[in-house]
Write a structure and sequence with these properties.
The protein is an all-alpha fold. The protein has two domains: 158 residues, Penicillin binding protein transpeptidase fold, CATH 1.10.3810.10; 50 residues, no CATH class. The protein is 54% helix and 0% strand. The protein is built from eleven helices and no strands. The protein is globular, with a radius of gyration of 22 Å. 24% of the residues are buried.
């Protein structure tokens, strides 16, 4: 699900920057300070302790998956420079927000927030809490601690957040008028924002009737046909 930086909660965006790439506005796709820190820590501890991936390098990896090798890292770094040159900083951040893994087969901050929290993006989610609740809880606590250290959150916020239970199941993502949405998307230029004259509440009501087997009676009349585009979420029922 496409997501733009302007569409998400500013606090969420600030937390993401603090945790993932706090110098994102200062580097061209590769963060030399992070690279130097990662190399120094690896030499000191004899193993990799922290990474140096920027948002741009993560996007490169998401677009072209490779084994975790030094050669792959070098390619990711080159691709990161190319991405920032082609997309600019905002376009690259929008791509990361759209592709970032959110647990299971979920991609993008918006999809993760809708599936796990049932609302538009308000809080970060990277591990699937249904499959790895302990790991997800540890990841949440690390993110909160780093956000406090960066001055994005006050010291009392993590304590309050730890009292909120993690979601145990994924919620259904909004899926209304899929046939119409697909046709409009195919006919529109890439990245265009589309609008329709559909009545959202009426559309959802008709889809509920269709799922319950009552669609034929509900769909009589030309006026209704102009207001709804009944689509695929009928679990195998024909809409023709």
């Amino acid at each position: 699900m496409a997501t733009r930086t302007a569409e998400i909660d500013p606090l969420l965006f600030a937390v993401l920057l603090a945790v993932e790439d706090r110098r994102v506005r200062l580097h061209p796709g590769i963060d030399p300070l992070a690279v130097a820190r990662a190399i120094a820590q690896a030499i000191r501890h004899g193993r990799a302790v922290s990474g140096a991936s920027t948002f741009s390098m993560q996007v490169a990896r998401l677009l072209e998956s490779r084994p975790r090798t030094l050669r792959a890292k070098a390619i990711e770094a080159l691709r990161a420079l190319q991405l920032e040159w082609r997309l600019d900083k905002e376009g690259m951040l929008d791509t990361w927000l759209t592709l970032a893994p959110m647990g299971g087969n979920l991609e993008g901050v918006r999809a993760g927030s809708l599936a796990w929290l049932g609302r538009e993006p308000q809080a970060p989610a990277r591990l699937g809490p249904d499959l790895e609740p302990a790991a997800a809880r540890r990841a949440r606590d690390r993110v909160l601690a780093r956000a406090v250290a960066a001055g994005v959150l006050d010291a009392g916020t993590p304590e309050a957040a730890r009292g909120v239970p993690l979601p145990a199941v994924r919620r259904p993502i909004p899926f209304s008028a899929p046939h119409l949405a697909w046709r409009r998307t195919l006919a529109a230029p890439p990245g265009a924002r589309l609008s329709t004259t559909l009545d959202g509440e009426l559309q959802r009501s008709v889809e509920r009737l269709a799922r319950d087997g009552e669609a034929p009676a509900a769909l009589r009349g030309r006026a209704v046909e102009l207001l709804e585009a009944l689509g695929a979420p009928l679990r195998g029922r024909s809409t023709s």
